[in-house]
Please model this.
Amino acid sequence: MAPIKIALVGIGKIVRDQHLPAIAKNNDYQLIAAASRHGTVDGIDNFKSIEAMLEAVPAIEAVSLCMPPQYRYEAARAALDAGKHVFLEKPPGATLSEVADLEALAASKGLSLFASWHSRYAPAVEAARSFLAATTIEDVKIIWKEDVRHWHPNQEWIWAAGGLGIFDPGINALSIVTHILPRPLFVTSAILEFPENRDAPIAANITFTDGLKLPVSAEFDWRQTGKQSWDIVARTAAGEMVLSEGGAKLAVDGKIVHQEPEQEYPMLYRRFAEIVKAGTSDVDLAPLRHVADAFMLGKRKFVDAFHD
Model:
């Protein structure tokens, strides 16, 4: 089968670090164009807008959208209207309604839509899911704390309304938890900490449960310096499970039981090729729904102003 002719939109750090290498190593793709207000990709045609790109390069079969979520809906709709399959970087949109509309549009046109959650493809996630499926879970704690100045320096969009703030990394944790736990969760309460000069939160504490009253809590914070924390801890009948380093390592009672090299974005593009070839979509909105619920139920606490 001929490779999928793909284009990238929104050329920034995540594209250079992850998307470009993943596409280059996958024989299912041929990268033929890019669109971005500022960045370019060497060796292919580059455009300032997705509209100009789609008009000039009709051979494009699929588009990978990597711009901030506030701007993704219009780009995704333009691509679908032009008959292209669409890969959505996480989070898939600024609102649930936007993504639901895109899903319906893709279905009506027989196109594939992929809401990608890269952290679900971390090396130890499937092993954690299998471990939890075979035991009784007593409680779960999510600790996701990192330094925003290191990971998102001077990125003003992430502090704007719709930029998600601390939920930009926090949604990675939620994408894992919603995949490894045996039953759906729902938010019961939340406290969101907003810097007095920002429209998105810098920290959040959230409680969840499920239909059988499993206690689940999450601590998200963007003010952590030094060692970063990306851990999910579950007390179970088979021992304490710790899924650490964003899903890279799995330990039970302190003993590492699973650890492999990271392959998140190569796995995402492998999955996208699968659904394009199968003529299906993969749009799981559970992580984004939990973020929306936290905003709906959360109490707001204002904290000191944040300056980069």
